[in-house]
Amino acid sequence: MLVQLQEATSAPSQLSRGTTFPDTRNIRKADLSPTPTHSASSYHYERSGPTFTHQYLMPPVLSAIEENKVKRIFELGCGNASVAAFLSERGYEVIGVDPSAEGVAIARKHHPDVYVEQGSSDDDLAARFGIFDCVLSLEVVEHVFDPYKFASCVSALLKPGGTAVISTPYHGYLKNLALSVTNKWDSHHTALWPYGHIKFWSRRTLGQLFIGSGFVEVGFHRVGRVPQLAKSMVCVYRKNTVEIMPYTSHA
C-alpha cells in the first residue's frame, strides 16, 4: 500500500538550511556528464563538481533526508562524490561507493574528507560497511543489470525502518506519448551508449521492485520539468521493520 505520498514539480535551486547547490544551468550538459567507455569500472569523469541533474534532484533529496531525521547515509553509485561532499559539509556522515575507478580517484583527490571506495550493488556492501539510516542512489538503477540484486543490496545496507532515496529518469503515459509523437525514442533510449541506460522505470515498476523487496513508498517527486514531462523522479521508500523474503532474480 502506498502511504504519505508527496509530489513536487520542477525543483527550485534554493535548498533548505539556507544553502544553494552549485548552479549548473549555464554549463553544457556534455561538460558535466560522465563519459562511458567499455565498462562501468572505467566511466570517465572530467570534473569533481555536480552534474546538471543535481540542480533539480537535490531539493527533494535533501527534504527526504531531513524529514526522516537521517544521520548516517550510504551513497550507492556516488560517482565523483560531489553529492556526498555536499551532504558531508552539512553534518551528515556519508560513505560512498562507485564502480568507476576514475570517479573514485577524483572523489578522493577533490573530496578527501569523504570516505569513498570502489564497489557496486553486485558486492556484499553491508558486510564491508555495515548498516545505515539512509541509502541514497541517484540516477543509478537504470544502469544495473539485476534490479533485484540492487534492491536487495539497498535493503541489506539499511536498518529496519531506514530510508531509501532513489532517483531515475521518469516515464509515464503522457511523457511516453510525447516521446512517440516527437520521434525522440531513439535518442531517449541511448542505444549506442556503451553501458548506458538499460532499464526505463515508471513509478509503478520501481514501486513493484521495492515494495516486493520489503519497502513501502513514503514519498514521490517528479522533477526537472512540469510533472507530466518530468526529467526524473525521486522515490522515497521506508524499509519494513519486519523482514520479509525479498524477490530474487529469475535469471
Structural domains: how many = 1
CATH class: Alpha Beta
Strand content: 15-25%
Continuous helix count: 9
Specify Rg, calculated over alpha carbons. 17 Å
- As residue ranges, the low-confidence spans are 1-18, 23-43
Query: What characterizes the major β-sheet?
Result: 7 strands, mixed
The SSE order reads HHEHEHEHEHEHHHEE
List the topology elements:
Elements: H1 29-32, H2 54-67, E1 72-76, H3 82-88, E2 93-98, H4 101-110, E3 115-118, H5 125-129, E4 132-138, H6 147-157, E5 158-169, H7 173-181, H8 185-189, H9 203-211, E6 215-223, E7 232-239
Parallel strand pairs: 1-2, 1-4, 2-3, 4-5
Antiparallel strand pairs: 5-7, 6-7
What would you note in describing this structure?
The chain has helices spanning 29-32, 54-67, 82-88, 101-110, 125-129, 147-157, 173-181, 185-189, 203-211; strands spanning 72-76, 93-98, 115-118, 132-138, 158-169, 215-223, 232-239. The protein is built from nine helices and seven strands. Residues 1-18 and 23-43 have low confidence and may be disordered. The radius of gyration is 17 Å and the shape is globular. The chain has a seven-stranded mixed sheet, sandwiched between helices. Helices cover 29% and strands 20% of the residues. The two termini are 28 Å apart.
